[in-house]
Amino acid sequence: MSEYQEIVEQSGDYRAVIKLDDSPEKPESYGMVPVLQIDSNGYGSVKAEAFNDQAEPFVHAFNVLSDLYHGNGYQYEVFERYMRIFHGATKVDSYNVGTIREYGYVGFDTAAWREEVGVGESFEREDILEEVRAWAEGDVWGVGLEKRVTWSTDEEDYDDMDTWEEIDDGFVWGFYGHRWAEQEALDSLKAQLAK
Fold first, then answer.
1. What is the pTM of this model?
2. For the chain, how big is the Rg over CA atoms in Å?
């Protein structure tokens, strides 16, 4: 894992630390919205594949609409209308890192998905590609606690030395987004101090 770390907060002999994950796993969870990964050839033609299992049933529809509308650049707009009309989507978001040769992503909440995971209408206001964006931009973290350990010796030529050592089970990885990792680190430190 990465050597880059941030000390979120220190209290006495404990501190909360987050470390950047330099090779994160792509986000996948049961409750995640269907997400398509979009590959562009640079000439207006785009093809989709499933980023997660939930998106598998929608790959063909996106690719058919993309073939029909690639010349005029309306494939995303037409796909969004298709998802809203035929699958009850209330939100269809897309994201691209910003370069032509990078993958893009399209996420959507279908009526069937909302019913399956028990999400109400408040979901409509959430950023449905937040984890995908964090993963694509390298904003994935591990969270851990460290304790100060003082090493001493009876020899006069050496001073006492403090080091910080991981406690509990070490670092927990897979926090998508700096703010979520930071919040988890603060919560972990608070729980440790309450023991």
1. 0.84
2. 23
Side-chain-side CA neighbours of 109 within 13 Å: the count stands at 20
48 three-class SS: strand
Give pLDDT, residue 49: 96
Contact between residue 36 and residue 93 where contact means Cβ atoms under 8 Å apart: no
**Amino acid of residue 109:** D
Provide mean pLDDT across the span 3-29.
93
Token readout for 133 is 């964006």
C-alpha closest to that of 132 among 111, 113, 104: 104
Cα pseudo-dihedral 54, 59, 65, 71, rounded to 10:
120
Res 153: pLDDT: 74
The residue count for the chain:
195
Token reading at 52? 């997660």
User: Which of 55, 50, 38 shows the shortest CA–CA distance to 110?
Assistant: 55
- Alpha-carbon distance 152 to 148, whole Å? 13
Q: Are 62 and 49 in contact (CB under 8 A)?
A: no
**Percent of the residues in the chain that have a pLDDT greater than 70, as a whole number:** 90
- CA-nearest of 144, 132, 142, 129 to 174 is 142
Please give the Cα distance from 118 to 90 (Å, whole number): 15
Q: Enter the tokens of residue 107.
A: 């996420």
For residue 134, the SS3 value is helix
**Tokens for 67?**
């073939």
